[in-house]
Structure formats: structure tokens, C-alpha cells
């Protein structure tokens, strides 16, 4: 197949809301800041108009020491709380059988991605996993998606669950499919899918004129 299917991680592949919220509130407790409601944290993370560093910590950038503490707590909470969505697992298994390459583009710290995906026993499913770092800006910047396309030399389809994901796909000029099995968020002017079968049907429709590479 001459396509790569790129997945967002949180809310698309993995139900990680509790892990994320617990980590952010742990950091706020250490900074003597009050606890935030989970719903507010998830809304801020997925809103491209909000600066989550300012919203959560009141600063533009945290220190390297605090960043290290965050990543350690983040990984711990993922190991305890994060689970794979069954629809995501069904979709991955289908794409593997058909022969598509698959990859991950996540705003989670790049240094944590392989550990998280390995713990959930799905790391080996992906050709490339890319997360945010000092040299890789987070979505809605298109850099992650373009990096994966260029590395694999394939056209791409991006599967995500948020407006940030939608904008990243637009900025990279690639098709976008929004899944609702996590946050139930409908993205206007986008393909919104309730389950794996709907995603499969849309991918097949987009790729029906693709040629097979032998």
C-alpha cells in the first residue's frame, strides 16, 4: 500500500484521561496550586486557542527539573490507568492484515512514547512513533505528520480525536478522520466516526484508487 495511517495517541488509541489529569494535578499540588477538574484539563489540552502551560502552571515554560518530575509521574500514571480502546485495537488489526503502514504522532513527550506503547503491548505495531520535543513542535503544527510522510515516503491519512488534530492534518494537507469513541467530540467539516468499522469504510473509500506495491 502506498499510504501510511497516522494515529494520534491520547483519546484515539489510548484512554489516558485519568493518567493525564492525575499527573497535572500532582504537579499543581507540588506547586501549591489548587486541583483542577478533569473535564477542564482535557478541554484545555485539546483547545488550540489555550496555552496549557499558562493554564495549568501559570508559566510559559517549566524548568528542566520539573519537566523530569512530570515525565516520571506521567509514565507511572500511564502504567496504572491507561488502556487501549477496543475500536482502536480492531482498527490496527485490520490495517495490519490489509498491509498498511501505521504510525503515531502525539503531543505527549517523545521520550515517554515508546515506554507507554510498549507497556500496552502495541509498540511493535508502528513503523514510527513521534512525540513533542525541543526539536519537534506539537500539533497543530504539521511537523510530526510531515516527518512521518517524508520518512516513509508515503501519502498519509491522519486519525485523531480533537480540533488540534484536525488543524494539524489541514496544515500538513492530508485527509483527516475524527474518532468519537473517546471524547465524543464532533469536528465540523470533518469525517466523524463512531467506531472502527466506520473508520475502515472511510479509509477504504479514500484509498480505493491507490495502487498496490509488490
From TrEMBL:
Pathway: Organic acid metabolism; glycolate biosynthesis; glycolate from 2-phosphoglycolate: step 1/1. It catalyses: 2-phosphoglycolate + H2O = glycolate + phosphate. Pfam families: HAD_2 (PF13419). Belongs to the HAD-like hydrolase superfamily. CbbY/CbbZ/Gph/YieH family. The lineage of its organism: Bacteria, Pseudomonadati, Campylobacterota, Epsilonproteobacteria, Campylobacterales. It comes from the Bacteria. One of its GO terms (molecular function) is hydrolase activity. This is phosphoglycolate phosphatase. Its EC number is 3.1.3.18. Gene3D superfamilies: HAD superfamily/HAD-like, Putative phosphatase, domain 2. The keyword Hydrolase applies. Keywords: Hydrolase.
Amino acid at each position: 500500500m502506498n499510504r501510511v495511517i497516522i494515529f494520534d495517541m491520547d483519546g484515539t488509541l489510548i484512554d489516558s484521561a485519568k493518567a493525564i489529569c492525575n499527573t497535572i494535578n500532582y504537579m499543581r499540588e507540588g506547586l501549591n496550586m489548587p486541583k483542577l477538574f478533569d473535564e477542564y484539563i482535557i478541554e484545555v489540552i485539546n483547545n488550540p486557542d489555550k496555552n496549557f502551560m499558562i493554564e495549568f502552571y501559570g508559566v510559559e515554560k517549566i524548568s528542566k527539573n520539573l519537566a523530569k518530575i512530570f515525565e516520571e509521574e506521567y509514565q507511572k500514571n500511564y502504567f496504572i490507568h491507561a488502556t487501549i480502546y477496543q475500536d482502536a485495537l480492531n482498527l490496527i488489526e485490520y490495517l495490519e492484515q490489509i498491509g498498511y503502514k501505521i504510525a503515531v504522532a502525539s503531543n505527549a513527550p517523545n521520550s515517554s512514547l515508546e515506554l507507554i506503547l510498549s507497556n500496552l503491548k502495541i509498540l511493535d505495531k508502528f513503523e514510527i512513533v513521534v512525540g513533542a520535543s525541543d526539536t519537534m513542535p506539537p500539533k497543530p503544527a504539521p511537523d510530526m505528520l510531515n516527518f512521518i510522510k517524508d520518512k516513509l515516503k508515503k501519502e498519509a491519512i491522519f486519525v485523531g480525536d480533537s480540533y488540534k488534530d484536525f488543524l494539524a492534518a489541514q496544515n500538513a494537507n492530508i485527509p483527516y478522520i475524527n474518532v468519537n469513541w473517546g471524547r465524543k467530540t464532533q469536528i465540523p467539516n470533518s469525517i466523524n466516526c463512531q467506531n472502527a468499522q466506520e473508520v475502515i469504510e472511510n479509509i477504504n473509500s479514500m484509498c480505493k484508487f491507490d495502487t498496490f506495491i509488490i
